[in-house]
Amino acid sequence: MTSIFFKKQQRSAYNLPRDEPCWTYDQPPDSLLRQQPLPLPSCSELELMRHFSGLAQKNIGIDTHAYFLGSCTMKLNPRINEWAASLPAFLESHPLAPEELVQGNLRIMGELIEFLASLTGMAGGSLLPNAGAQGEFAGIKMIRAFHRSKGDLERTQVLVPDSAHGTNPATAHLAGFEVVPIRSDGEGEMDLEELQAHLSPKTAALMLTNPSTLGLFSRRIEQIADLVHRAGGRLYYDGANLNAIMEIVRPGHMGFDVMHINLHKTFSTPHGGGGPGSGPVLCSHELLPFLPLPRVVRKAEGWKLLWDTPDSIGQLASFHGNFAIVVRGYLYARLHGKSGLRRVSEMAVVHANYLKTKLQTLFKAPFSRFCMHEFILQMDRFAHHSIGAWDLAKRLLDYGFHAPTVHFPLIVPEAFLIEPTETEAKPRLDAFVEALRTIAIEAEEEPERVKTAPHSLSVGRLDEVCAARYPHLQDVW
Ligand SMILES: *Cc1c(COP(=O)(O)O)cnc(C)c1O
């Protein structure tokens, strides 16, 4: 599609009053004024609408396609959440409004923290982090502040399993720690001997997620927590994906001390394209003093913002984080209630196991155990035609499915990580199986067709690394 900047209709999509000054303050000096007019698009409002509607139709998203993107939980974004988040009372409330005027907003924040804490077996938390990765950063900083408050300055290492999401080692590194990778064994579990070998008075924390990114629940979790605690370390739980465990098991009960949740995954708020997110951080009693500022607390006279906690890691986000995302997450929690969230998790796990059972007759499932909300397939069956996960994922686009997560986690070659979520219905799951069955036949009979996919979209195969590293957005400036 032609860039909007090249539409030269000599028309305008807006209309400003002419010859009337728009402001009453002084004109900026000439030296600061632009000498040449900006090369803005010149097209009518109608053409502008068509341009953006056309772009939206080219997109592949959860509203148009099944989107089994493992570790990302692309579930329905309920429209009632959008309605609530756009109520003028929320939209127009000022972030600096006095507490007594925004009791409703504070109550939403405070009650959501209480709800998330009880869902996860934690003592309290903060909604300030604007992403899962920022929640991790907050949590690891809190663990660091905790050790320092005890005068323990020697704990310089964070242990991270090799199956971890990339944000885990990145977080530990950014927070000033040395990252120590821990190998997984053939069952996809953390290797306990390797863990023991790396635990020492230098251990600040272990970052872990359970179920792991392989979609497997670790049965050794209590043993792992015990080992780390005995070495004086703390356990960080990557709770980006709670979709398998809500009201079934709580990270606090597994022995974790700090964690984050992605409201923009499990709690159904929209994501993709880089934002806006919300990654609340939650923690046990001993870590409460280190939570970011300000804290939302319930007092006899109403909800308050607490600023005077001297041990806090400080302010993380401007104002109150992504409040509109918090409103959506709050409504999702209230509408489901705890029993509804348990049902969400049960359905998510049933759907994943249904798909896995069907697909493992076509492709290799490296772990035979019952899976949680997602599972791994090893897509190397057509290696003799030089067809891998990437090619099969691209071909799925032609069959009307967003590609699953590919090549992650890194420890399984040619991985597909598939997460169907509870909000898809069985016919859609069956259609996905049939699409992959057809693609498997094509891969054998017409390998070139698969290797050059997609064929039905407005763009073919992109150089995605180049597109991410050297974005060429517009050269008219
Ligand atoms: C998505 C995800 C994250 C990071 O969350 P962002 O909001 O993208 O920063 C961390 N860990 C896991 C396991 C994830 O799936």
Structural summary, described in words:
This protein is of the alpha/beta class. The chain is 35% helix and 12% strand. The chain has helices spanning 45-58, 79-85, 88-91, 103-120, 132-149, 167-174, 192-198, 221-230, 251-254, 323-359, 389-398, 426-445, 447-451, 464-469, and strands spanning 66-67, 124-126, 157-161, 178-182, 203-208, 234-239, 258-261, 281-283, 295-299, 302-306, 375-378, 401-402, 405-406, 415-418. Helix 2 packs antiparallel against helix 10 (323-359) and helix 10 (323-359) packs across helix 12. It is globular and about 75 Å long.
Q: State the separation between the terminal residues, measured CA to CA.
A: 19 Å
Described by the principal axes of the CA atoms, the overall outline is: globular
**Helix/sheet category:** alpha/beta
- The averaged pLDDT comes out at 93
Please report the total strand number as a whole number. Answer: 14
- Poorly predicted segments: none
Number of helices: 14
Q: Which range does the strand content fall in?
A: 5-15%
Adjacency order of strands in the biggest sheet: 2-8-7-6-5-3-4
**Helix percent band:** 25-40%
**H/E topology pattern:** HEHHHEHEHEHEHEHEEEEHEHEEEHHH
- C-alpha Rg (nearest Å): 25 Å
